[in-house]
Amino acid sequence: MKIILNQDVVHLGEEGDVVEVKDGYARNYLLPTKTAVIYNKANAALFASRAAAIEKRKAEKRAASASLKERLDGVSLSIVVPAGESGKLFGSVTSQMVQAELAKLGFEIEKKKIEVATHAIKMTGTYTVVVHLYENDLSHIKLVVMSEAEKIAAERAKAEAEAKAAAEAKAAEEAAAAETAEAAETEVQEEAPAETAEENN
Question: Based on the domain organization, do 139 and 83 belong to the same domain?
Answer without folding.
Answer: yes
